[in-house]
Amino acid sequence: MITLGIDLSSQPKDTAACLVEWDGDRVTAREAVLHCDDATLDGLIRLADAVGIDAPLGWPEAFVRAVGGWSATTWDDAEFQKSLRLRLTDRFVQTHTRLVPLSVSTDRIGLPAMRAMALLARHGVTDRSGGAGKFFEVYPAGSLKQWGLAPRGYKGADNLHARRALLADLRCLLPALLADDAFAESDHALDALIAALTTRMAAQKETHAVPDEQVAIARIEGWIHLPRQGQGPR
């Protein structure tokens, strides 16, 4: 099996991807591909059995309705405000990890989401929940938290030491993993690797499933494939 992790930004310069081959007792992370434009991503997707995208794959339904035809006349309802900012999957992640994913409707992550939507459209994806079995939304910070690893503090040029430590932790988590030290040179490359490892779990149905009552909306809003606590990739 080959999984592809994509740390998706709105622009190629901050977009990275990583293919991981799962072959018996050997798990090989190929060299990270940096500065990925759409054509590069499409080529890598053709090589993969499953794809994990670190970007929102949809917007909160309440937000979409509000933008399409605003009818609210008050702003005092905190729950209403939350429904515009967070998808059901964001709330699910918050409940299980105490981490709050960036809001696709009110934070700058909205631009990568637009690029993600274009990617899904090119590949004919209409079910954004991962139900079709190839394209999954992933959240590296959430995965790390569930694996018992530090979800913060490794981003940016000044945190090379923290990335090296995190890469060492990933090797301990998955002893079969063969990943070059170069993955620690870029937080985008490291996130792409984490995304690829999470994608393996999603493809094996080892992440939290969409609750039955939320399946219909998850197909529209997207669903973050969060590993179960204490269970790592294999």
Can you offer a commentary on this structure?
The protein has about 230 residues and is an alpha/beta fold. It has one domain. About 40% of the residues lie in helices and about 15% in strands. Strands 1, 2, 3, 4, 5, 6 and 7 form a seven-stranded mixed beta sheet that branches. A hairpin with a 2-residue loop joins strand 2 and strand 3. Helix 2 crosses helix 3. The mean pLDDT is about 95.
Major sheet, described briefly? 7 strands, mixed
Helix run count: 9
Which stretches of 5+ consecutive residues score pLDDT under 50?
A: none
Structural class: alpha/beta
Number of strands: 7
Cα distance spanning the termini: 12 Å
Average pLDDT across residues?
Answer: 96
* Overall number of domains: 1
Task: Provide the succession of SSEs.
Answer: EEEEHEHHHHEHHEHH
> Radius of gyration over alpha carbons?
17 Å
Overall spatial form: globular
Hey, roughly how much beta strand do the residues contain?
A: 5-15%
Helix content: 40-55%
Briefly, what is this?
This protein is α/β, with parallel strands linked by helices and 234 residues long.
Please write out the topology.
Blueprint: E1 2-7, E2 16-23, E3 26-29, E4 33-34, H1 38-47, E5 50-54, H2 61-68, H3 78-85, H4 88-97, H5 110-122, E6 135-137, H6 140-146, H7 160-173, E7 177-178, H8 187-203, H9 215-221
Parallel strand pairs: 1-5, 3-7, 5-6
Antiparallel strand pairs: 1-2, 2-3, 2-4
Helix pairs in contact: 2-3
